[in-house]
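Backbone geometry:
***
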Amino acid sequence: MSWLQQAISVGPFRRGFHLITPLIVDALPALSRYSVGWLQVFIQHTSASLTINENADREVRSDLEAVFNQLAPESFPYEHTYEGPDDMPAHVKASLLGSSIQIPITGGRLALGTWQGIYLCEHRNHAGPRNLVLTIHGQRS
C-alpha cells in the first residue's frame, strides 16, 4: 500500500455550491497509477464544506443553496457575529455538511457514480481561496 498527499488551493468562489471534481483530478496526475484505494479530500476551513451530489443539473446547486439558507438563516439571533452576518450561518452549514469526503479509487479513477460530483460549498459572501488536502491511500498498479 502506498500514500500520496498533496495540498491545493482553489477559488475564490462566490457563495454557493461549486463542482470541483475536475480541479481535484487535474491536481492528482498520479491517481491513474492506483489500481484500488481511497481519496480523502479535506477542507482546512470552518466556513466552507465539501459534499458529493448530482453533477448534471445546475439547478441542484441553486436548490441546495436555497435549502441551506433556510436551515441556517442570517436573520437568526446568533451570538457570534464578529465577522459579519454570514459568518455564523457559514459555520452551521459547514458543520452540517462536513469538512471531508472519501471516494474509492478503482482502476486509476475516482469511483464516483454517473451523476455524482465533488462540491466545494462556499458559505461566505466574500471568501478567499480555500485550501484542500488530498490524500490517496491505495495499491499502485
